[in-house]
Amino acid sequence: MAVSFEKATPSRFDGPPRVIAAGFQIAEGMLVGPRDHFDDPAFDEARRKANYVANYMRAHGPFEPHRLPLDEMEYTTPPEVKKKLEGWFKAAK
């Protein structure tokens, strides 16, 4: 998602991925800039769509490979949840 320098720090670990654009130019032998190219309302619709898609994907629940498999998670509860759910599901054929 195209964002300004100010908005480049994500609050959600799973996206949408953010990108910034710094513009520079050389004038009279001096480097001038940076100019924040994405700090522009013209990108608002693209940002809205990126957030919509990220929320839609997130609504499907967690899926790998965005994180370690459940068996390798050490410091969270997925292994415990997996134990509780054993026997509820059948393997896909």
Structural features, described:
The chain is of the alpha+beta class. The chain has one domain. It has helices at residues 44-58, 78-85, and strands at 22-27, 30-36. The chain has a two-stranded antiparallel sheet. A hairpin with a 2-residue loop joins β1 and β2. The longest helix is centred in the middle third of the chain and has 15 residues, at 44-58.
Helix and strand topology:
Elements: E1 22-27, E2 30-36, H1 44-58, H2 78-85
Antiparallel strand pairs: 1-2
Summed up, the helix count is: 2
* Major sheet attributes: 2 strands, antiparallel
Task: Tell the overall outline.
Answer: elongated
What's the SSE pattern?
Answer: EEHH
First-residue to last-residue Cα separation: 38 Å
Give the oligomeric state. single chain
Mean pLDDT: 85
Number of strands: 2
Strand order of the biggest β-sheet:
1-2
How many domains, in number, for the residues? 1
The secondary structure category is: alpha+beta
pLDDT < 50 stretches: none
Gyration radius, to the nearest Å? 21 Å
Strand content: 5-15%
Brief description of this entry?
This protein has helices spanning 44-58, 78-85; strands at 22-27, 30-36. The chain is of the alpha+beta class.
Keywords:
2 strands, two-stranded antiparallel ribbon
